[in-house]
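Q: Got a minute? One more chain.
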Amino acid sequence: MDYVNAFWVGGLICALVQILLDRTKLMPGRVMVLLVCSGAVFGFLNLYQPLIEFAGAGASVPLLGFGNTLWKGVKEAVESDGFIGIFMGGFTASAVGISAALVFGYLASLVFEPKMKK
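A: Always. Here it is, folded:
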C-alpha cells in the first residue's frame, strides 16, 4: 500500500503543477520557485511532515519536498548554531541531493550523446 500512496500523491502533485502550467501565464521557472517556497511554508506550518509519513517518496521527491528539506535544515541549524544557521542550514540539508544530481548528470553526459534540434 505504501507504493500506491506514493504513486497517487506524487501523481496528484505533478498533475496539479501541470494544470498550473497549462492554465496560467506563469513561466516554468516561477512555478518551480513557487513549489519550493510552498514546500518550505508547508513545513513551517507542520503540514508537510504528515504527508511525507503517509506518502513517502511520493511527497518527498517533488520540489515541494525540496522546499521542506530546506526548511528542516534551516530549523535545525538555527537551533544549534543560532542566527548563522539561517544561511548554513539549507545548504547542509540539501547538499547530498544536489551533489548526487550533479554527479549523475555528469555521468549521463559521458554515456549519452546529445542530439541538437534542427
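A: The chain is about 80% helix and 0% strand.
Q: Perfect, thanks.
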